[in-house]
Amino acid sequence: MAKYSHKNSSLRTYENKKTRSRKYIGKSGVNSLYLNSLHDPLGVELPSSAVETSGNSGGGIGITKFFQGKNIFITGATGFLGKALVEKLLRSTSVGKIYVLMKADDKENALDRLSKEIIQSDLFESIREKHGKSYEEFVREKLIPIVGNNCEPNLGMDTYSMHAIMDEVDVIIQSAASTAFNDRYDYLIDTNVNAPQRLMRLAKRCKNLKLVVHISTAYVNGKREGLIYENPLVMGENGRKQDHIVDIANEINLSVKSCIAATADSNNSSKALKTLGVERAEFLGWNNTYTLTKAMGEMILNEIREDVPLLIIRPTIIESTYKEPYPGWIQGNRMCDPVIIAYGKGLLPAYLADPNVHLDVVPADMVVNTTIAAIAKHGIVINKPRGELNVYHVAADYANPLRMSELFEYVYEHFSANPLTCSTIIKKMKFFNEFDEFSKYVRDEMDVVVRNNAVGFSEKTLQKIEKQYKAKVAYAEELCKIYKFIGFFRARFHSGNTRKLLEEMSEEERDYFEIDVTKIEWRKYFVEIHIPGVRKHLLH
């Protein structure tokens, strides 16, 4: 049987004590062996607000007052974060109508999607219990499905729906996006760049609009290192702060031309367009096509908005809810979860990452609450500057650090006590900083498993087993390639605006709209909340 191994060589794993104590110096000479203290890894002393906040004895921001009777238009309401936003608004505010853009053939189909994907969702159980028999009546009165499509002119809405939005809406929330890291370039540009453009054009025609809210990602900042502040991206800005200018019109034209050219070769068109996106992201200074297109989306919104007030929310890695409406709710295979699941299944015996790097995870309910509180703050401001722009990093690392090694310790603890199957045995994670060494170790480990299972099988069965394990090795390698940028991430996100928001909230608002990431207990979150949530919602 073929053995998946290279020539014997010493494996420089991070388990070695000397390597554990080694400091990692990036291109900028920055020491990224972060200390869990009041000092930023870049030598910048963190403000005290990163650790504690002063009490607010006043009336707070006025969150519930702002949302009373306000009408919202939201895209992406059936997605993970969008759905959680809708649930929280219905549960904790006296919001007026929530107009929900839904991709559907007609109104009947939209109502059917609304019922199956939102009204019947277990996420809404608290509201269901509160309203009892009148639950569906309450929700259907509040949620108005709008037939449309982000990727069509006027968002695919008919004239009647479009005028209803322009006449009635106070706040627009852009939550729709394609989050696949390296999907087709043309598709990601259409959903993450062109769609926000279309929405902003509609926003400029709204009569009572207080605010446009764009849900982005902290990773729009590209391959920069150091402390990243909550600043808007400038049109044409490069992800590395180098010379290559991001010409959005050129990128859009390039994706369209490439799509037309690729259509002639239908067998390879999708692969070619995915490769194009990866190449453009690398050239322009981003880690993947998703973050490049989200960055372009931010740039173009700021460029065309004129005097429309814009609020940009940039979460880091969003994972399952910490507390509300119940702990551990999640939808879709989120960023950390393919890695967590693969490790739990015994498919990932090693990982390509610096164990001391910080992993910036934030629970979905805290992202939702920060968004709602920020909307109220900037929507209610009297005499605010025309067309103000505010950016919020919703991040935990600056105030409540989590190391990569700690994440895997918690995952190991959970699966050791609660294995996915009786036959699954996982070991403590080994870390590598070179792909070739990581790959060799994984292949050797898989080869041992194959040889241990080879006794007594026919040659045909052995060939089948070998093929399966080659596929598993390839999957482990692909996972680590995709998430390598997280494993060696050399930046931290300043979240001063979010901390200031917390300071301005009343005690009651802090209780009802929890945004204080210092209260997260990471071991409890992963061992008792997040991984059980992943198993419940993704593996069953």
The radius of gyration over CA amounts to: 24 Å
- End-to-end gap: 35 Å
Number of helices: 20
Task: Profile the largest sheet.
Answer: 7 strands, parallel
Percentage of residues in DSSP E strands: 5-15%
Spatial order of strands in the largest sheet? 3-2-1-4-5-7-11
CATH topology of the domain at 57-241 and 288-335 and 361-401 and 491-516: Rossmann fold
CATH superfamily of the domain at 57-241 and 288-335 and 361-401 and 491-516: NAD(P)-binding Rossmann-like Domain
Structural class computed from helices and strand pairing: alpha/beta
Would you state the CATH class of the domain at 57-241 and 288-335 and 361-401 and 491-516? Alpha Beta
What is the residue-mean pLDDT, rounded to a whole number?
87
Helicity level, as a percent range? 40-55%
Instruction: Please report the total strand number as a whole number.
Output: 13
Assigned CATH architecture of the domain at 57-241 and 288-335 and 361-401 and 491-516 = 3-Layer(aba) Sandwich
Query: What is the molecular shape?
Result: globular
Low-confidence parts = 1-57
